[in-house]
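Good morning C.,

I know you're traveling, so I'll keep this short. The sequence:
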Amino acid sequence: MSLIQILNNYFKKKENNQETGPAPEGVCPNCWGSQDWDGEYYNFMKSQNSNPSKDIYNSFVKDIVRKLDKITINENTYTCEKCKVNYDKSA
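The tokens, ready to paste straight into the viewer:
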């Protein structure tokens, strides 16, 4: 699944008040939290009167993907290339 699809699923769950977890799968929780993308999404939806067009929504998600593009995950541990924080995969 691509990062765009993962973010789409995350925000759709958020809209439906479903459990989302601290950050989308495959995204560094440290970078996600420090950038406050949940808050950005709230501001985006508020400015679109909760009815954004598909093109505007897709542009919003693609903008986030561009900003998170430097984040990669290693096989045994999660190591964020951007903030250099390591996470134990088994934790």
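Safe travels,
E.
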